[in-house]
Specification:
211 residues, alpha+beta, two-stranded parallel ribbon, 8 helices, 7 strands, globular
Length: 211
């Protein structure tokens, strides 16, 4: 209630990722391995309640498997855990794994969005890989304090919406796996409400707490 949305600026879909030495070659392989031995497979996150954690729990719910969450203190150590083989798979943003992907230390198996990423055109979506309707991402929303005059909110949205399609901006966003949005204040509020409802259900079902 303290903030009101100006515009959903962009979305950074989570990427199903494994270490370069992992025997898992696809989402189907992961599903088979996870169903074979409950809680045997584990996945890292940058911390409890973050996008990586929530993506892993959503996967467990939709694929009907049991896996173990391993929280780290930040994105860097969670990525290192995959590279080192300490964790089995992860749902990480493209920007956090980009360098390790290029170095060949990680492999991307699927993108948790309804379309492929320009930065990873050969990586299928989760839907294409076999888990229908799976979408999970980190997103970025511009907001202002509640009570900000509507003309100011509208002006900020117009400026954001005008900047995002520019070639230099879009190319930089594409390179790090961020999909530009530029939604209106009203559409952004609708998106936010839907996200809160979606993840509230995941938190409730998975019994996630911050203690």
């Amino acid at each position: 209630k303290d903030l009101v949305p100006v515009s959903l600026v962009g979305r950074s879909p989570l990427v199903l990722t494994v270490g370069h030495n992992s025997p898992l070659q696809s989402l189907a392989d992961l599903n088979t391995a996870a169903k074979g031995d409950a809680f045997k497979l584990n996945y890292p996150s940058s911390g409890t309640g973050g996008p990586n954690h929530m993506g892993g729990e959503l996967y467990a719910m939709q694929a009907n498997v049991k896996v173990t969450h391993v929280p780290y203190k930040g994105s860097a150590p969670s990525v290192v855990s995959l590279v080192a083989g300490e964790t089995d798979f992860g749902f990480l943003t493209a920007v956090t794994i980009n360098a390790q992907l290029k170095a060949g230390n990680l492999r991307a198996l699927a993108v948790a969005h309804d379309s492929r990423l320009p930065a990873m055109p050969d990586v299928p979506t989760m839907d294409e890989a076999g888990l229908k309707g799976f979408m999970a991402d980190a997103w970025f929303m511009a907001a202002v304090p509640a009570g900000t005059p509507q003309p100011i909110i509208d002006r900020l949205h117009r400026e954001i919406a005008a900047i995002l399609p520019q070639d230099d901006v879009k190319s930089k966003l594409d390179a790090v796996g961020v999909l530009p949005a530029g939604l209106s204040p009203q559409a952004s509020a609708t998106f936010l409400d839907a996200e809160i409802a979606k993840w509230r259900e995941v938190v409730k079902t998975a019994k996630i707490t911050l203690d």
